[in-house]
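Troubleshooting: if your tokenizer reports a length mismatch, compare your output against this known-good record of 474 residues.
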Amino acid sequence: MEVVIPNTSAEKLSGGSILNRSRSHWWNTSDSYQPSAPLVGQADVDVCIVGGGINGLSTAYHLKKLEPSLEVALLEAEVVGFGASGRNAGQIIMKFGGTSPERLVGSYGAERAREAWNYIHRGIALIQDLRLDEDIDCDYANTGTMNVCLRIEGDGHVDEAMRLMERMGQSQYVAYVESERVEQELGSNQFGAAYHESRGGQFNPLKLVRGLKRAAERRGARVYENSPVASIDTTENLMTLHTGLGVIRCKKLVLATNAFTHLLPGARRLGLAREQTPLMVKGVITQPLSPQQWERVGWPRRAGINIHSDLFYSFAPTADGRILYVGGYYTSAPWDRNLAPEIDTRLKRVGPDHLAAFFPALYGVGVAQTWGGPISITPDWIPHVGEARDPRILYACGCWGNGMPCGMQNGRTLAELALGKHTENADAWFVTRKKRKWPSRILAAFLAKGVIRKRHVANRRIGGRMTPPLRFPR
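Known-good structure output:
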């Protein structure tokens, strides 16, 4: 039976308001979608990939590009882009996991930080090349990003970041912006100095992911959607995966499941139960701004704005003239197995106040939609990619909410690892190193709440000026 997913899915709530459940803005602005058929029966392949997000699809694409004769299959429990890859904030950002330049250099040194930053640089280049090579229209705008300080916290974060960019060999891509210029451009006196990063910009991530799926299939990869993995047997030479309707056997296995990794069957046995823990992040998007509203707010660069502070906030214009924003207050750390992205009626109510706290010219701009998505956080704040306990199994997790260029590059890395190649990707220090794990699942969820709590502490430290307080999710 043919199943077509329409471009909207809405539920009418009390009071007559409409909020889209389990669908992001990107679903609503992409074409209707026909999923691939699920796996039925038995198949033998060289490489099986679990996970239809940016990591998994990039792996499938690069495996077939590097070695066209390989038999490659990908299993996705829902549809491609169902997780973070189709629910994120729509920015391509130069960032390595959850780390700032200060944390990255302080923890690993300038040379390793340079290698990590260059890895993300290559990921952005891969996305740009893929768009042209495979004719993928994903509304990409190479505006770069603005990384701003809060005026009340001073300009120290940006000054230090600029100094470390020089040490990491990235100074040619960044430009310092004085606080007076920032205020003029953004129409807000809440911000101090900033630096503009020329790489990256805005895009529709779901369009990219679906385009990447089509590109992988054109090269011969098989993509099976609505095919959740029920068991993984690694006892034989060929590993065996069972889904609800089929069985697949493979020589190599790639687990590209990010925030869902600990839910894999046999995750503890595979050594991946404590590799990462999920964090649920909520996004808010405005109604389209009128030309007059855009004129009042400014934003001549039309670049995404990321606040360089523990009080995390991110704002980005969209191709259809809206502003999409996320922040530390819009997060929760699930204790149980339920990772279903959910709407948040609180954000429908307080979202406009949060936006106006930063941009007074946008007072009164309404919220069109809220949605949620899971990100994957690691105990050492950087992505994990490489071999699992069984060397036949490769994996990637730890997207940290900045995962699109990293995930694209991870796919190239995982493909090279699966083929036994030694490259600057496969031999990178963060690929070959022993990864740090969370001490326990319960403690991981507790410590993940600490990531949220830092935002509340930052708000109190600056006198609660930026946002009205929200309760912690229970």
